[in-house]
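Here is one such protein, fold included:

. . .
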Amino acid sequence: MKIEIEDIDSCNKKIKFEIPHKEYDIKLKQYYQKLGREVKVPGFRPGKVPMSMLEKKFGPDVKKEVMSTLISEQLNNAIVEKDLRAVGQPHLLDVSAEDGTDISVSASIEVLPTLELKDYSGIELAMKTPRITDDDINQTIEALRQRKATNADVTDRSAQDKDLLKVDFTSKIGNEPFEGGAAKDQIIQAGGGQLIEGLDKGMLGMEIGETRDIKVQVPEDYNNKEIAGKDVDFQIVLKGIQVQKLPDLDDEFAKGIVDKDFESLDDMNLKIRSELEEYERKEARKAMKKQLTDKITEQNQMDLPEGLVKEQVKFMVEQAQKSQEKASGQKHDHGHDHDHDHGVEVTPEQLDQYREPAMKALQEELILDQLSRDLDSQVSEEELEKEVQNMSQLLGGGNIQQIKREWEKNGVLARLHSRMKRDKTLDAALDKVTIKEEIVDRKDLIADN
Protein backbone atom coordinates (compact mmCIF):
# COMPACT_ATOMS: atom_id res chain seq x y z
CA MET A 1 0.00 0.00 0.00
CA LYS A 2 1.37 3.39 -1.02
CA ILE A 3 1.33 5.85 1.89
CA GLU A 4 2.01 9.58 1.75
CA ILE A 5 2.72 11.64 4.88
CA GLU A 6 2.32 15.40 4.70
CA ASP A 7 3.57 17.68 7.48
CA ILE A 8 0.92 20.14 8.60
CA ASP A 9 3.09 21.30 11.49
CA SER A 10 5.46 19.65 14.00
CA CYS A 11 2.52 18.07 15.87
CA ASN A 12 0.09 17.28 13.05
CA LYS A 13 0.40 15.02 10.04
CA LYS A 14 -1.82 14.28 7.04
CA ILE A 15 -1.94 10.65 5.94
CA LYS A 16 -2.98 9.77 2.37
CA PHE A 17 -3.28 6.26 0.95
CA GLU A 18 -5.33 4.15 -1.46
CA ILE A 19 -7.06 0.85 -0.83
CA PRO A 20 -7.18 -1.31 -3.97
CA HIS A 21 -10.74 -2.07 -5.06
CA LYS A 22 -9.76 -5.72 -5.32
CA GLU A 23 -8.95 -5.80 -1.60
CA TYR A 24 -12.25 -4.11 -0.78
CA ASP A 25 -14.11 -6.62 -2.98
CA ILE A 26 -12.46 -9.59 -1.20
CA LYS A 27 -13.42 -8.21 2.25
CA LEU A 28 -16.98 -7.61 1.01
CA LYS A 29 -17.40 -11.19 -0.21
CA GLN A 30 -15.93 -12.54 3.03
CA TYR A 31 -18.43 -10.49 5.02
CA TYR A 32 -21.37 -11.76 2.92
CA GLN A 33 -20.17 -15.35 3.37
CA LYS A 34 -20.07 -14.89 7.13
CA LEU A 35 -23.44 -13.15 7.10
CA GLY A 36 -24.97 -15.95 5.02
CA ARG A 37 -23.98 -18.49 7.69
CA GLU A 38 -25.54 -16.41 10.47
CA VAL A 39 -28.84 -15.00 9.11
CA LYS A 40 -32.00 -16.99 8.74
CA VAL A 41 -33.97 -16.55 5.50
CA PRO A 42 -37.18 -18.58 4.97
CA GLY A 43 -36.70 -21.29 2.38
CA PHE A 44 -32.93 -21.39 2.60
CA ARG A 45 -30.59 -23.45 4.74
CA PRO A 46 -27.84 -21.55 6.67
CA GLY A 47 -24.94 -20.79 4.36
CA LYS A 48 -27.06 -21.33 1.22
CA VAL A 49 -28.64 -17.87 0.96
CA PRO A 50 -27.79 -16.38 -2.49
CA MET A 51 -25.41 -13.43 -2.33
CA SER A 52 -27.73 -11.41 -4.56
CA MET A 53 -30.47 -11.72 -1.92
CA LEU A 54 -28.05 -10.70 0.85
CA GLU A 55 -26.89 -7.71 -1.20
CA LYS A 56 -30.47 -6.61 -1.80
CA LYS A 57 -31.44 -6.96 1.87
CA PHE A 58 -28.29 -5.80 3.66
CA GLY A 59 -26.17 -4.12 0.95
CA PRO A 60 -25.87 -0.50 2.21
CA ASP A 61 -25.16 -1.51 5.81
CA VAL A 62 -22.65 -4.19 4.79
CA LYS A 63 -20.75 -1.84 2.47
CA LYS A 64 -20.62 0.82 5.16
CA GLU A 65 -19.35 -1.68 7.77
CA VAL A 66 -16.73 -3.21 5.46
CA MET A 67 -15.53 0.21 4.32
CA SER A 68 -15.27 1.52 7.88
CA THR A 69 -13.39 -1.54 9.14
CA LEU A 70 -11.00 -1.59 6.19
CA ILE A 71 -10.20 2.12 6.47
CA SER A 72 -9.61 1.79 10.22
CA GLU A 73 -7.29 -1.21 9.75
CA GLN A 74 -5.29 0.45 6.98
CA LEU A 75 -5.00 3.70 8.93
CA ASN A 76 -3.54 1.83 11.89
CA ASN A 77 -1.21 -0.08 9.55
CA ALA A 78 -0.05 3.21 8.02
CA ILE A 79 0.66 4.70 11.46
CA VAL A 80 2.72 1.66 12.42
CA GLU A 81 4.55 1.44 9.08
CA LYS A 82 5.54 5.11 9.15
CA ASP A 83 6.44 4.93 12.86
CA LEU A 84 4.19 7.85 13.77
CA ARG A 85 4.00 8.45 17.52
CA ALA A 86 0.29 9.10 17.44
CA VAL A 87 -1.61 11.00 20.12
CA GLY A 88 -5.24 9.94 20.15
CA GLN A 89 -7.23 8.66 17.17
CA PRO A 90 -6.88 9.89 13.58
CA HIS A 91 -9.65 12.04 12.03
CA LEU A 92 -10.92 11.22 8.56
CA LEU A 93 -10.72 14.16 6.20
CA ASP A 94 -11.90 12.64 2.94
CA VAL A 95 -12.91 9.25 1.51
CA SER A 96 -13.32 8.92 -2.24
CA ALA A 97 -14.95 5.61 -3.17
CA GLU A 98 -16.68 5.22 -6.52
CA ASP A 99 -17.96 1.84 -7.71
CA GLY A 100 -15.23 -0.26 -9.27
CA THR A 101 -12.35 2.11 -8.44
CA ASP A 102 -9.68 2.20 -5.75
CA ILE A 103 -10.62 3.93 -2.50
CA SER A 104 -8.69 7.14 -1.71
CA VAL A 105 -8.42 8.06 1.97
CA SER A 106 -6.96 11.08 3.74
CA ALA A 107 -6.84 11.63 7.49
CA SER A 108 -5.16 13.91 10.02
CA ILE A 109 -3.47 12.81 13.19
CA GLU A 110 -1.75 14.49 16.13
CA VAL A 111 1.74 13.14 16.79
CA LEU A 112 4.57 13.65 19.21
CA PRO A 113 7.12 15.88 17.51
CA THR A 114 10.45 14.47 16.38
CA LEU A 115 13.04 15.44 18.96
CA GLU A 116 16.79 15.56 18.63
CA LEU A 117 18.32 16.60 21.95
CA LYS A 118 20.96 19.30 21.88
CA ASP A 119 24.42 18.54 23.26
CA TYR A 120 24.23 18.86 27.01
CA SER A 121 27.78 17.78 27.88
CA GLY A 122 28.79 21.40 28.55
CA ILE A 123 26.34 21.78 31.42
CA GLU A 124 27.96 22.54 34.79
CA LEU A 125 26.19 21.71 38.04
CA ALA A 126 27.01 22.67 41.64
CA MET A 127 26.60 19.76 44.05
CA LYS A 128 26.42 21.13 47.57
CA THR A 129 26.66 18.42 50.23
CA PRO A 130 26.06 19.30 53.88
CA ARG A 131 28.98 18.74 56.25
CA ILE A 132 28.37 16.03 58.86
CA THR A 133 28.93 17.42 62.35
CA ASP A 134 29.40 15.82 65.76
CA ASP A 135 25.87 16.95 66.58
CA ASP A 136 24.51 14.96 63.61
CA ILE A 137 26.30 11.84 64.84
CA ASN A 138 25.16 12.39 68.43
CA GLN A 139 21.53 12.77 67.30
CA THR A 140 21.74 9.47 65.41
CA ILE A 141 23.28 7.70 68.41
CA GLU A 142 20.64 9.21 70.69
CA ALA A 143 17.92 7.80 68.41
CA LEU A 144 19.55 4.36 68.72
CA ARG A 145 19.59 4.75 72.52
CA GLN A 146 15.89 5.68 72.47
CA ARG A 147 15.14 2.43 70.63
CA LYS A 148 16.91 0.52 73.40
CA ALA A 149 15.29 2.51 76.21
CA THR A 150 13.33 0.79 78.98
CA ASN A 151 10.67 2.21 81.28
CA ALA A 152 10.92 2.08 85.05
CA ASP A 153 8.06 2.64 87.51
CA VAL A 154 8.28 5.59 89.89
CA THR A 155 6.30 5.42 93.14
CA ASP A 156 8.07 7.79 95.54
CA ARG A 157 7.36 11.18 93.99
CA SER A 158 4.85 13.26 92.04
CA ALA A 159 4.71 13.72 88.24
CA GLN A 160 7.55 15.72 86.65
CA ASP A 161 8.33 17.05 83.19
CA LYS A 162 9.22 14.28 80.67
CA ASP A 163 7.69 11.54 82.84
CA LEU A 164 5.50 8.92 81.15
CA LEU A 165 2.09 9.21 82.77
CA LYS A 166 -0.62 6.55 82.71
CA VAL A 167 -3.98 8.30 83.01
CA ASP A 168 -7.72 7.94 82.66
CA PHE A 169 -9.53 11.06 81.56
CA THR A 170 -12.99 12.40 80.75
CA SER A 171 -13.81 15.79 79.30
CA LYS A 172 -16.78 18.06 78.79
CA ILE A 173 -17.76 21.29 77.10
CA GLY A 174 -19.92 22.88 79.72
CA ASN A 175 -21.85 19.88 81.05
CA GLU A 176 -21.81 17.94 77.76
CA PRO A 177 -19.30 15.18 76.96
CA PHE A 178 -18.15 14.86 73.34
CA GLU A 179 -16.99 12.07 71.05
CA GLY A 180 -13.37 11.07 71.67
CA GLY A 181 -13.26 13.01 74.90
CA ALA A 182 -12.58 10.07 77.20
CA ALA A 183 -9.93 7.35 77.44
CA LYS A 184 -8.55 4.77 79.86
CA ASP A 185 -4.93 3.73 80.48
CA GLN A 186 -3.63 6.40 78.13
CA ILE A 187 0.17 6.76 78.15
CA ILE A 188 1.40 10.31 77.56
CA GLN A 189 4.70 12.08 78.09
CA ALA A 190 4.48 15.18 80.21
CA GLY A 191 5.82 18.06 78.14
CA GLY A 192 5.97 15.85 75.03
CA GLY A 193 3.64 18.03 72.98
CA GLN A 194 1.04 15.27 72.49
CA LEU A 195 -1.73 17.10 74.31
CA ILE A 196 -3.51 20.42 74.06
CA GLU A 197 -1.26 23.16 75.37
CA GLY A 198 -1.73 23.57 79.12
CA LEU A 199 -3.13 20.10 79.74
CA ASP A 200 0.12 18.21 80.36
CA LYS A 201 1.54 21.10 82.38
CA GLY A 202 -1.58 20.91 84.52
CA MET A 203 -0.66 17.33 85.43
CA LEU A 204 2.76 18.24 86.85
CA GLY A 205 2.89 17.65 90.57
CA MET A 206 0.07 15.06 90.60
CA GLU A 207 0.43 12.07 92.88
CA ILE A 208 -0.45 8.52 91.81
CA GLY A 209 -4.16 7.95 92.51
CA GLU A 210 -4.93 11.67 92.49
CA THR A 211 -7.86 13.09 90.49
CA ARG A 212 -7.48 16.61 89.15
CA ASP A 213 -9.76 18.94 87.16
CA ILE A 214 -8.01 20.99 84.48
CA LYS A 215 -9.64 23.61 82.24
CA VAL A 216 -7.94 24.43 78.91
CA GLN A 217 -8.79 26.61 75.94
CA VAL A 218 -8.52 24.60 72.73
CA PRO A 219 -6.77 26.43 69.85
CA GLU A 220 -8.92 27.63 66.94
CA ASP A 221 -6.93 25.48 64.46
CA TYR A 222 -7.28 22.24 66.46
CA ASN A 223 -8.03 19.24 64.22
CA ASN A 224 -11.18 18.25 66.15
CA LYS A 225 -13.55 20.93 64.91
CA GLU A 226 -16.14 20.03 67.55
CA ILE A 227 -13.97 21.45 70.33
CA ALA A 228 -11.73 23.88 68.38
CA GLY A 229 -11.70 27.35 70.00
CA LYS A 230 -13.71 26.23 73.03
CA ASP A 231 -13.06 25.86 76.76
CA VAL A 232 -12.91 22.19 77.76
CA ASP A 233 -13.01 20.79 81.29
CA PHE A 234 -10.84 17.69 81.76
CA GLN A 235 -10.90 15.34 84.72
CA ILE A 236 -7.63 13.45 85.00
CA VAL A 237 -6.90 10.37 87.12
CA LEU A 238 -3.18 9.61 87.44
CA LYS A 239 -2.70 5.83 87.61
CA GLY A 240 1.07 5.50 87.23
CA ILE A 241 4.39 7.23 86.60
CA GLN A 242 7.32 5.87 84.64
CA VAL A 243 10.67 7.29 83.61
CA GLN A 244 12.65 6.34 80.57
CA LYS A 245 16.00 4.63 81.24
CA LEU A 246 18.54 4.98 78.45
CA PRO A 247 21.36 2.42 78.10
CA ASP A 248 24.89 3.51 79.00
CA LEU A 249 26.86 4.84 76.06
CA ASP A 250 29.69 2.30 75.98
CA ASP A 251 31.24 -0.44 73.84
CA GLU A 252 28.65 -3.00 74.94
CA PHE A 253 25.83 -0.74 73.76
CA ALA A 254 27.52 -0.31 70.36
CA LYS A 255 28.04 -4.06 69.92
CA GLY A 256 24.40 -4.75 70.81
CA ILE A 257 22.87 -2.72 67.96
CA VAL A 258 20.97 -5.21 65.79
CA ASP A 259 21.86 -5.40 62.06
CA LYS A 260 25.05 -3.38 62.61
CA ASP A 261 28.63 -4.60 62.96
CA PHE A 262 29.88 -1.96 65.35
CA GLU A 263 32.95 -3.28 67.16
CA SER A 264 33.18 -0.49 69.74
CA LEU A 265 31.87 2.98 70.58
CA ASP A 266 34.63 4.61 68.52
CA ASP A 267 33.88 2.29 65.61
CA MET A 268 30.20 3.19 65.85
CA ASN A 269 31.01 6.90 65.63
CA LEU A 270 33.20 6.39 62.54
CA LYS A 271 30.67 4.20 60.73
CA ILE A 272 27.72 6.44 61.53
CA ARG A 273 29.67 9.41 60.14
CA SER A 274 30.40 7.42 56.98
CA GLU A 275 26.74 6.37 56.62
CA LEU A 276 25.48 9.93 57.09
CA GLU A 277 27.98 11.28 54.56
CA GLU A 278 26.94 8.63 52.03
CA TYR A 279 23.27 9.45 52.62
CA GLU A 280 23.87 13.18 52.11
CA ARG A 281 25.82 12.51 48.91
CA LYS A 282 22.91 10.49 47.56
CA GLU A 283 20.46 13.24 48.48
CA ALA A 284 22.71 15.85 46.84
CA ARG A 285 22.88 13.69 43.70
CA LYS A 286 19.07 13.54 43.65
CA ALA A 287 19.07 17.34 43.63
CA MET A 288 21.55 17.19 40.72
CA LYS A 289 19.13 15.06 38.75
CA LYS A 290 16.41 17.70 39.19
CA GLN A 291 18.81 20.45 38.13
CA LEU A 292 19.96 18.50 35.08
CA THR A 293 16.37 17.73 34.06
CA ASP A 294 15.49 21.43 34.26
CA LYS A 295 18.53 22.49 32.23
CA ILE A 296 18.05 19.89 29.48
CA THR A 297 14.36 20.82 29.29
CA GLU A 298 15.29 24.51 28.96
CA GLN A 299 17.67 23.59 26.11
CA ASN A 300 15.02 21.66 24.19
CA GLN A 301 11.77 23.59 24.09
CA MET A 302 9.22 21.82 21.90
CA ASP A 303 5.72 22.15 20.52
CA LEU A 304 3.14 19.87 22.08
CA PRO A 305 -0.02 18.35 20.59
CA GLU A 306 -3.04 20.23 21.92
CA GLY A 307 -4.89 16.98 22.61
CA LEU A 308 -2.05 15.79 24.81
CA VAL A 309 -1.98 19.09 26.72
CA LYS A 310 -5.73 18.87 27.36
CA GLU A 311 -5.38 15.29 28.62
CA GLN A 312 -2.61 16.37 31.01
CA VAL A 313 -4.70 19.29 32.25
CA LYS A 314 -7.61 16.91 32.83
CA PHE A 315 -5.36 14.59 34.83
CA MET A 316 -4.06 17.49 36.95
CA VAL A 317 -7.59 18.76 37.61
CA GLU A 318 -8.65 15.26 38.71
CA GLN A 319 -5.65 15.00 41.05
CA ALA A 320 -6.39 18.43 42.53
CA GLN A 321 -10.01 17.45 43.16
CA LYS A 322 -8.95 14.20 44.87
CA SER A 323 -6.55 16.15 47.09
CA GLN A 324 -9.30 18.60 48.04
CA GLU A 325 -11.69 15.75 48.82
CA LYS A 326 -9.08 14.06 50.99
CA ALA A 327 -8.23 17.30 52.83
CA SER A 328 -11.90 18.03 53.54
CA GLY A 329 -12.58 14.45 54.64
CA GLN A 330 -15.07 13.73 51.83
CA LYS A 331 -15.56 10.09 50.98
CA HIS A 332 -15.21 9.02 47.37
CA ASP A 333 -17.64 6.12 47.25
CA HIS A 334 -19.84 4.97 44.42
CA GLY A 335 -20.62 1.49 45.63
CA HIS A 336 -17.67 -0.14 43.87
CA ASP A 337 -13.95 -0.25 44.35
CA HIS A 338 -12.45 -0.39 40.86
CA ASP A 339 -10.61 2.40 39.11
CA HIS A 340 -12.78 4.38 36.79
CA ASP A 341 -12.92 7.55 34.75
CA HIS A 342 -15.55 9.98 35.94
CA GLY A 343 -15.22 12.06 32.77
CA VAL A 344 -14.21 15.27 34.53
CA GLU A 345 -15.18 18.28 32.44
CA VAL A 346 -12.35 20.79 32.25
CA THR A 347 -13.53 24.39 32.19
CA PRO A 348 -11.83 27.08 30.06
CA GLU A 349 -10.63 28.70 33.29
CA GLN A 350 -9.02 25.43 34.45
CA LEU A 351 -7.41 24.98 31.04
CA ASP A 352 -5.81 28.41 31.39
CA GLN A 353 -4.83 27.77 35.01
CA TYR A 354 -3.15 24.42 34.40
CA ARG A 355 -1.83 24.88 30.84
CA GLU A 356 1.65 26.09 31.81
CA PRO A 357 2.40 23.44 34.49
CA ALA A 358 0.86 20.78 32.21
CA MET A 359 3.14 21.76 29.33
CA LYS A 360 6.17 21.83 31.62
CA ALA A 361 5.39 18.35 32.94
CA LEU A 362 4.84 16.96 29.43
CA GLN A 363 7.99 18.54 28.01
CA GLU A 364 10.04 17.11 30.85
CA GLU A 365 8.50 13.65 30.41
CA LEU A 366 9.02 13.59 26.62
CA ILE A 367 12.57 14.91 26.85
CA LEU A 368 13.51 12.32 29.47
CA ASP A 369 11.93 9.64 27.31
CA GLN A 370 14.10 10.72 24.36
CA LEU A 371 17.13 10.91 26.65
CA SER A 372 16.52 7.33 27.77
CA ARG A 373 16.35 6.28 24.10
CA ASP A 374 19.59 8.09 23.30
CA LEU A 375 21.34 6.49 26.29
CA ASP A 376 19.63 3.11 25.76
CA SER A 377 18.53 2.99 29.40
CA GLN A 378 16.91 -0.32 30.30
CA VAL A 379 15.60 -1.82 33.54
CA SER A 380 16.09 -5.58 33.66
CA GLU A 381 13.62 -8.02 35.20
CA GLU A 382 16.25 -8.85 37.83
CA GLU A 383 16.61 -5.17 38.79
CA LEU A 384 12.84 -4.74 38.97
CA GLU A 385 12.47 -7.90 41.06
CA LYS A 386 15.16 -6.71 43.49
CA GLU A 387 13.46 -3.33 43.91
CA VAL A 388 10.10 -5.02 44.52
CA GLN A 389 11.78 -7.14 47.23
CA ASN A 390 13.31 -4.05 48.85
CA MET A 391 10.02 -2.16 48.86
CA SER A 392 8.01 -5.14 50.09
CA GLN A 393 10.42 -5.58 53.02
CA LEU A 394 9.88 -1.94 53.99
CA LEU A 395 6.12 -2.58 53.87
CA GLY A 396 6.37 -5.66 56.08
CA GLY A 397 7.25 -8.43 53.62
CA GLY A 398 5.05 -10.99 51.88
CA ASN A 399 4.96 -13.25 48.83
CA ILE A 400 7.00 -11.39 46.17
CA GLN A 401 5.22 -12.90 43.16
CA GLN A 402 1.81 -12.17 44.68
CA ILE A 403 2.88 -8.59 45.42
CA LYS A 404 4.14 -8.21 41.84
CA ARG A 405 0.83 -9.46 40.42
CA GLU A 406 -1.12 -7.07 42.63
CA TRP A 407 1.13 -4.13 41.75
CA GLU A 408 0.90 -4.98 38.07
CA LYS A 409 -2.88 -4.97 38.31
CA ASN A 410 -3.14 -1.56 40.02
CA GLY A 411 -0.37 0.18 38.07
CA VAL A 412 2.20 0.38 40.87
CA LEU A 413 4.65 -1.88 39.03
CA ALA A 414 4.54 0.28 35.90
CA ARG A 415 5.19 3.43 37.94
CA LEU A 416 8.06 1.71 39.76
CA HIS A 417 9.59 0.61 36.45
CA SER A 418 9.22 4.15 35.09
CA ARG A 419 10.91 5.67 38.15
CA MET A 420 13.80 3.21 37.96
CA LYS A 421 14.28 3.89 34.25
CA ARG A 422 14.24 7.63 34.88
CA ASP A 423 16.88 7.27 37.63
CA LYS A 424 19.13 5.14 35.41
CA THR A 425 18.78 7.64 32.57
CA LEU A 426 19.71 10.60 34.74
CA ASP A 427 22.57 8.72 36.40
CA ALA A 428 24.02 8.07 32.95
CA ALA A 429 23.44 11.68 31.88
CA LEU A 430 25.13 13.02 35.04
CA ASP A 431 28.28 11.15 34.02
CA LYS A 432 28.42 13.27 30.86
CA VAL A 433 28.27 16.71 32.53
CA THR A 434 30.58 18.61 34.87
CA ILE A 435 29.72 18.42 38.56
CA LYS A 436 31.49 20.63 41.07
CA GLU A 437 31.06 19.17 44.54
CA GLU A 438 31.30 21.41 47.57
CA ILE A 439 30.96 20.53 51.26
CA VAL A 440 28.97 23.25 53.01
CA ASP A 441 27.50 23.93 56.43
CA ARG A 442 23.89 22.83 56.65
CA LYS A 443 22.70 26.30 57.70
CA ASP A 444 24.21 27.78 54.52
CA LEU A 445 22.46 25.14 52.41
CA ILE A 446 19.12 25.94 54.05
CA ALA A 447 19.70 29.66 53.46
CA ASP A 448 20.38 29.02 49.74
CA ASN A 449 17.13 27.15 49.40
